[in-house]
């Protein structure tokens, strides 16, 4: 495995400090102020060199993620917005899971199957449905089974109407709001089920973020995605996920198809203690999506292994402090920084601590300062928050004046450089 050294900029993180922080992992970090690093990061992340990833994929958009660390093993047009089709039901399910967790909704609550839900998503619609009877009352538990296992559009509409009173309100005020809370900044929703609507747009990256969140934060509900069949209204339907019966360790999540979006799926499997998540979209055939997803998962399990780059609470580096008793603050990651790397050791890793700074004093111990980003062979692999390992109090009036003058000079140089 090869590591690339990144020059240090605008930081108290000297060579000695770097050695103390990262020498154990033989990994270099660049610490700098937000603007410069942000621009550098964009240029690196934008170079989606899929040919270097060692995988030849046919899906127009795809991503493969290691669930524990969030490490991205492969991506192709991962930030391209497309119709997510029924994969969007993951967002509806998450909103319900979160409402149950907060105590706003109970599994035993009954929601009525309105005429709207029945006509748009039920038996008359001709689409995927749980065949709930019009005006019947169905528990939230059964509606979740219908939405997840049977991909019931009627179940999703009933959940949306039961929680928000109106599907459009649910999409705008519940799904979108919750997506933003989860860091999904680009996803938009026009309804609860993924049926054709100009407002339904997601990227495979954000579908992967959503799937990972469901798996890690709602393990008790994630089990639903692995159930192979569900019977409602005396109609038994199998789970539509083809991986459940064709791949070792597969246990979720969701398929989707619309004419606009093509065939896609979000899948996950566990082998030898490692869980991978795959998302593909835009394929022209249902068999192609199953083959592509399985091929990508198998490639990931066969070629990668997990390495710990930085242990939990190990010093990662230092951030510059403005107006403090100390001119820098030591940073740590509360959880281990892990990344999936090729077993053959051919990866080139780059790590950078990215923060907006200098950080203004006082600084509280445990305060999040930024993130450590790790790139593998030119593509971002993992991001982990970093926190202040110690409290830094406000410095003297003289200290603040000196720091202010220093920042003024730096700002003048920066403004001059921008004009060049």
- How much helix, percentage-wise, in residues? 25-40%
Oligomerization status of the protein chains = single chain
Structural class: alpha+beta
Strand percentage, roughly? 25-35%
Low-confidence stretches: 1-53
How would a crystallographer describe the biggest sheet?
8 strands, mixed
SSE run: EHEHEEHEHEHHHHHEEEEEHEEEEEEEEH
> In one word, what is the shape?
globular
User: How many β-strand runs?
Assistant: 19
Give the N-terminus to C-terminus distance in angstroms: 39 Å
Rg: 24 Å
**Number of distinct helices:** 11
For the residues shown, what is the average pLDDT? 84
Family: Belongs to the peptidase S11 family.
EC number: 3.4.16.4
Domain Peptidase S11 D-Ala-D-Ala carboxypeptidase A C-terminal: 304-394
Active site: 86 (acyl-ester intermediate), 89 (proton acceptor), 151
Feature tags:
420 residues, alpha+beta, eight-stranded mixed sheet, five-stranded antiparallel sheet, 11 helices, 32% helix, disordered N terminus
Secondary-structure map:
Elements: E1 2-3, H1 15-22, E2 29-32, H2 34-45, E3 61-66, E4 72-76, H3 89-102, E5 110-112, H4 115-121, E6 137-139, H5 140-148, H6 153-164, H7 167-181, H8 204-217, H9 219-222, E7 229-232, E8 235-238, E9 250-258, E10 262-271, E11 274-283, H10 286-303, E12 304-310, E13 315-322, E14 328-332, E15 337-342, E16 348-355, E17 359-360, E18 368-376, E19 379-388, H11 397-419
Parallel strand pairs: 1-16, 2-16, 13-17
Antiparallel strand pairs: 3-4, 3-11, 5-6, 7-8, 9-10, 10-11, 12-15, 13-14, 14-19, 16-18, 18-19
